Amino acid sequence: MPPAVAVGPSRAMSGAGRAGELRLTVDDGDAWPILSSDVASFQTQARRPPPCRAPDGRPALHEGSRVGISGKRAHRRSCRTVRRHAACGLATPSMRSTSLSSRHAPSTRVDPMSYVRCLRGLGSGIEYSADVPMNLDPVDGRPVEMVLDLDRLAAEKPEAAWYDPSRRDLWRFGALMALDIANPEDARHIVALGEGHTPLLDYADHAAAHAGGLRLQVKEEGKAHPGYGANPTQSFKDRGMAMVVAQARRLGLTKLAVPTQGNAGDSLTRYAVAAGLSVVVAMPDDTPAPILGNVAAAALRDPDRVKLELIGPTIREAGAYLKEHYVPQGFFSVATFQEPGWRIEGKKSLGLELAEPAPGHTRWSLPDAVIYPTGGGTGVLGMWKAWDELEALGLIDSRRPRMLCVQSEVTPPLVNAFDAGVDDTSVVRAGNTISFGLNVPGGVGHFKVLKIIRESGGAAIAVSEADTAAELQRVWRDKRWWISPEGAACLAAIPQLLDRRLLNRGERVVAVNTGSAEKYLPALRHLM
Question: Which of 29, 81, 371, 451 has an alpha carbon 20 to 30 Å from 290's alpha carbon atom?
Answer without folding.
Answer: 371
